[in-house]
Amino acid sequence: MKTDLTDTTSSKINKALVLGRRAIGTPAVGMVLTLVIVTDEENAYDALKAANDASREHPSRTLVVIKRVSRSPRDRSKARLDAEVRLGADASTGETVVLRLYGEVVDHAQSVVLPLLLPDAPVVVWWPVNAPTDPANDPLGALAQRRVTDTYSAEEPIRELTARADAYTPGDTDLSWTRITPWRSMLAAALDQVVCEVTAAEVEGEDFNPSVELLAMWLADRLKVPVRRSKSAGPGLTSVRLRTSSGPIVLDRPDGSLATLSIQGQPDRAVALKRRETAELIAEELRRLDPDDTYAAALRFGLERLDEEAAVPAAEPEQAPESAPEPEAVPAAKPAAKKAARKAAAG
User: Fold this and answer.
1) How confident is residue 288, by pLDDT bands cut at 50, 70 and 90?
2) pLDDT tens digit string along 318-329?
3) Which of 211, 190, 212 is nearest to 202 (CA)?
4) Average pLDDT over residues 21-35
5) How far apart are CA 282 and CA 52, in angstroms?
6) Dist CA 31 CA 118 (whole Å)
7) Which of 161, 269, 270, 325 has its CA 20 to 30 A from that of 258?
């Protein structure tokens, strides 16, 4: 069921939601949270599709906030709100409201969203693109317990990652971090299988990929070892190598789908490490709404510190001191019998 509302208000949208639930025979609200998606018209379709897929696991009221750019000064001075209310089959297992903001109301999106939040339910705000520098202090971000960004979609991902570290607030998270969850799980499981000391690590992946940096910072923070990054053609992360006292541990994924885990003294194993869709990433983030302390620790480790520690060369093994030269051989004394024979010959 779909209802279009032109030049409307939040109260009229709420009324349309109630009437829509009654029309499809589900008057009760069975949503577990409110997901607010802040995006532009270009990325709205993909973001909404991912949210609808994730709602099969987490039934939610999804509010899509699209800030439209008015072309003329006259249009920018007028405030207008258009809405599209979707329920039933058009909204998967949840409720969807697409909000298009025009004019002055663009700068006051929180006043439109606030009346539409589910009462006594957590709020998650997701910026698929163009996330604010400080999500917690954004007017919409301030409404949420959880704020999801994606540095991979930024024009300069590595600089964006540094900005995220400077402005981090408990409740912030990033889909670039969510993408490396299977890698972290697999590496932790591999280290549980052997008794060893890790002395260095290397992470290989695409250039300007924030997931490579986050995985490297996580390894450096948890293992307290220098971590080097190297470039590859991708896709995404391609390899992690751990140098240990019992031999190398390598997790290699050259094709973005199937990986090979190699541990010294054990047969190689094929492990599923497929690159996941956005819907799976969002569903994972919605499973936990408490602060992610592990992400915070890795992010705060810092790219600068990572570069400094990776630049320190590994200590060369100490060489054994050169042995002292052998003393020259001293000629052995001649037997007394030979000496007496020489005297006899001389006489």
Assistant:
1) confident
2) 343 444 444 444
3) 212
4) 77
5) 10
6) 8
7) 161
